[in-house]
Queue: 2 jobs
Job 1
Amino acid sequence: RKEVEQDPGPFNVPEGATVAFNCTYSNSASQSFFWYRQDCRKEPKLLMSVYSSGNEDGRFTAQLNRASQYISLLIRDSKLSDSATYLCVVNIYNQGGKLIFGQGTELSVKP
Amino acid sequence: DTAVSQTPKYLVTQMGNDKSIKCEQNLGHDTMYWYKQDSKKFLKIMFSYNNKELIINETVPNRFSPKSPDKAHLNLHINSLELGDSAVYFCASRDRGTNTGELFFGEGSRLTVL
C-alpha cells in the first residue's frame, strides 16, 4: 500500500464548479499535512498547509481527519487557472522529516 | 534571483554513461532533497541532507550517489545509466527548524536515457 494515496483523476469540470479531492495516508506517525500544486512541466509549489481544525484560503478549503487518516481539498468556483495537478503531502517527523507526496490528482477546468 | 537552481535542465544520454546534476539554493536552508518524478508523475523522495549530513536514503540503487559539499549545494551523480532512470529529477530545500513543510523546488532536470 502506498504511504499517501490519491485518486489520480483526471477531474474535468466546468468553470464555476466545486470540486473535492481526497487523500489518505497510512503512517500514523504523520504529523503535518499539505497540499501542493504542480502545473504541467513545472515544479510543485505549496498551495496550503492543512490544520486539524480545517482551514480556508479564499476559494480553497482543506480538512484533516486524523482518526480516519484522511485529508481533503475543496475548490469552490473553479477558474481556468486552477487547472493543474494537486499533490497531497505528509510530513513524517520520526523519519528525518520526510515529506511524502501522493501521486497527485489532475484537475482540468473547462470554459 | 533563483532560489533553488539546478543544472542542467535537460540531459539526453546513452545507456551506460555517467552523469551529474547540480543543485544550489540561496535561501539559507539547512536541508536539501532529491526527488524523482517518473512518467506516471509520481514524485518519490530519494535522498535528504541536513547541514551536509545524509539523513534520508531511500531504497535507491547505489549507482546514485549524492554529495553535499556545503549546506547550499546538493549534487547527484548517476553511474551506468539505465533506461529506467529516465525521469525528471527535482532538487528541493527547506528549513527544517521552521517545520512549515514548505519545500522550495528547483525547476527540475529532465533526464532521457536512450
Job 2
Amino acid sequence: GEDVEQSLFLSVREGDSSVINCTYTDSSSTYLYWYKQEPGAGLQLLTYIFSNMDMKQDQRLTVLLNKKDKHLSLRIADTQTGDSAIYFCAEASPLYNTDKLIFGTGTRLQVFP
Amino acid sequence: DSGVTQTPKHLITATGQRVTLRCSPRSGDLSVYWYQQSLDQGLQFLIQYYNGEERAKGNILERFSAQQFPDLHSELNLSSLELGDSALYFCASSPRDRGLTEAFFGQGTRLTVV
C-alpha cells in the first residue's frame, strides 16, 4: 500500500535529543524528505536524503536511512521549544514517468521546558 | 518564504458551490503538486502536473479537477462541495518531475464548507 507510517506523538524536554521515526513503503524511492509544519503554517522542507546514502547531517539535524528495513529517522539535537511542530516524512516514489511524493501521517513533537 | 504562492488564503463557501484555488510555483519550477490536508486523513496527494501535462493522480475525487497553464500556474477546481471537503489545500512546486531533490510548499488555502 501507500501508507508511510510515523508515530503520532513525541514529547521531549528542552535540551534533550528528539528522534522521530518513519517507515516508508517503496524500496525504489529515490529521495526521502523531512518536512516541518508549525501551527497554521505551510510545510517547510527541513532536509532530504538520497536513497544511496545512509546518513546525512545538517547542523542539529541528523537523518538516518536503513534501506533494507525501509526505515528513516530524524534526530534533532538540543531540542528547543521552537522545534515544537508536526514533522512529516515523505518519499519520492518513482512511477513510469514521474516521481510521486507521498507523505507520512505526521508526528507531533511537543517540547517542554 | 518558499516562493510558492497560493490564493486565496481562506475561503468560506456553502455546500453545493464551486471554488477555484490558485497556485503560482517558484520561478523556474515546472512541476506542481496538489495536496489536501484534513484532520482525519492527513496529507493526501491529489494530483501532479509537469509543464502543463498531468503526470500523476492520487486520491482526487471526480468532483475535483486541476490544470496547469502555459505560464505554469495551476488551478484546482472543487465543485459540488460537501462539508467533508473542508480542509487545507496545499500546492508544492519542484524544478523537475523526476529525481526530486526538493519540493517547496505554499502556505495553503484553508477551505471551509458550511
